Each structure stands twice: as structure tokens, then as C-alpha cells.
Fold this protein.
Amino acid sequence: MANQRGTFAKRQREQDRKDKARAKQERLAARRAQPTDKKGPQIAWDEAVQVNTTSDDPPVPPPPVTPSDDVPTD
């Protein structure tokens, strides 16, 4: 006759694995069923952005001039 202890232990491990997977699926389904209001941090669009500069910073150079900028349009 086969080793009953090993067979039972294997069956028990398989059952535990299935139970754990079922519980995980239930948690996932419950989480997906809940409506979410927020998907990330809220952005305050109305706040002004301040750039802190010091007198030690070099001045920002102007953008380069392209030939199309020099030609006047009629």
C-alpha cells in the first residue's frame, strides 16, 4: 500500500494553495467593485508656481534666432 501520510500532505498542500488563491480572487474582486474617487495625488491647478532664483545665478540667454524669424511676412 502507498504511503498515506505523503499523499495526505500533498492533498493538504494543494487544498491550502487553492484556498489561498480563492481568497485572493475574492479580495481582488471586492477591491475592483468599490468605486474610486481618486487615482493619484490631487493637483492644485490654481496655485502659482514660483521659481526661486538668487543673484548668483547667471542670466538666462535668449532663445536662438532662426532664419524664418528674420523674414517679414506680407
Summary: The chain has a mean pLDDT of 79. The longest helix spans residues 4-33. The two ends are 101 Å apart (CA to CA).
